[in-house]
Design goal:
Blueprint lengths: L1 E6 L5 E5 L1 H8 L13 E5 L4 E6 L6 H9 L2 E6 L2
Antiparallel strand pairs: 1-4, 1-5, 2-3
């Protein structure tokens, strides 16, 4: 499944998609590779909607908190 995320706050939101949460829930590593894995991040400007985000993002504690606080809206879509 994929998710659409909308920044409903008045500020830019940045979420670090930590390997031990996001990649594990995703079932594959999405970290940038170099000398060592570096977690990816998701940045949403004010009022922006990003479509097609893997629903594993909904396991990230900061994303859960932002949705609960009303700073982020999430809508599930088709895979």
């Amino acid at each position: 499944m994929t998710v659409s995320l909308t920044n409903t706050s008045r500020r830019c939101l940045v979420f670090v998609l930590a390997h031990d949460v996001f990649c594990v829930a995703n079932g594959r590593c999405r970290c940038a590779r170099g000398d060592r894995p570096v977690p990816t991040s998701l940045t949403l400007a004010t009022g922006v909607t990003v479509d097609g985000v893997d629903d594993a993002v909904l396991t990230v504690p900061e994303v859960i908190r932002a949705i609960r606080d009303g700073a982020l809206a999430a809508n599930r879509g088709a895979p």
